[in-house]
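Hi V.,

You were right to ask for the full record rather than a summary. Here it is.
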Amino acid sequence: MTTPTAPPDTDQLLAIAGELMQRACKLGADAAESAVTQSRATEVAVRDGKLESVEGSESKDAGLRVFFGKRQAGVSFSDLSDEGISLAVERALAMAKLAPEDPWCGLVEPNLLAKAIPELDLYEAPGWTSEDLSRLAREVESAARAIPGITMTETAFASTGETASASVSTNGVSHTARRSNSGYGVSVIAAGDNGMERDYSMTSARRLADLRSFAEIGTEAGKRTVSRLGAEQMSSGNRPVIFDRRVAARFLGSLEGAISGPSIARGVSFLRDRMGEPVFGEHINIIDDPHRPWGLGSRPVDGEGLANRKRNIIENGVLTTWLLNSPSARQLELEPNGYATRSLGGSPGVSTTNLHIEPGGQSREDMIAAISDGLLITEMFSPSQNQNTGDWSVGVSGFAILSGEIAHPVSEITVAGNLKEIFARLVPANDLKFWSSANSPSLLVDNLSIGGA
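Predicted structure:
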């Protein structure tokens, strides 16, 4: 039987990151930042009760970004030998000297860095062996295959992993973190008179106690798949549409892109002139919580070392903030506000952490009961969005709603609209679940264009 190995040593990672930064400065860099990560993961896949694969991976990677005045360059690499580090440092310095000037680049001013770093619960020592993973994958598959109508398994899997990281910079950042992640899922196929359908379900969490049961996941995957059999097209027209919570969180991604500092600084956002104005209905609150216990997106500070906090990005429908890192903040003449992300050797990006739409007071079932002719969307694919105008369309499948009840499955449909109008008319149900880093209850839009038969 395999046994879990010791967790990655964050002190060792911090020492490597410090060595990288110091070498860059000794060779003339005006400023530098470095990061080192170490990841381990094991995944087991089964099909028809038989082991298909056992994949184990372990990696240790580093990144370095250096500055000469307003010139910068970064490298990422995995050769952490003394020679490998020397080559990476020399390459980063040579690239930075030849890079064009960027007036907005640079490390965060030291006085803006977090004064204290909160301790978050993000790590649980992996408790699953490869034998446990094999058993769990078989159990979730068995639960799915027990649903009448399921004919075969596409894949069933279980996985566990951990990541440790360390980052330092010449402006005073020195930070380590450790995170864990485990989960399982299954994708199955059902056959009917009109062909085959597939669907899936999965669960992922930082600690095992937060995982949904294998029986729930398998049963959900099986029922979802069988319910898709016999799908029809829907006639074109305008109808009320409900987005199941499984897909409703996609709107959070559209919002995040529209309020990101880099997009606003470039002027390529359909919300670029809406700060402080109503963007959603007054009943809508959208909250980002970077310190959510065991949250899949939680982080104690942002990617540049700034303090972060729970914030209503949308409060009573009103847009309250941009998502800023230091380059976009400088360009917009604002202060960075804790949304920076970092990649190994790259310039900072921006993102939210644990983002969710607050639930409403009405159940999804009550919403459906009030619709005489509408659409329940359970899957979305191939979205198209104009970032400047907000024009949006997406391919969907789901179920027709007739006389207040879910009727037959539908597919080969497109819904379209403008996100500014859609945001203003969204009505949340009360079925919010915190199952990922972006979560939403089911959402009703009272009138959307549907393209079908």
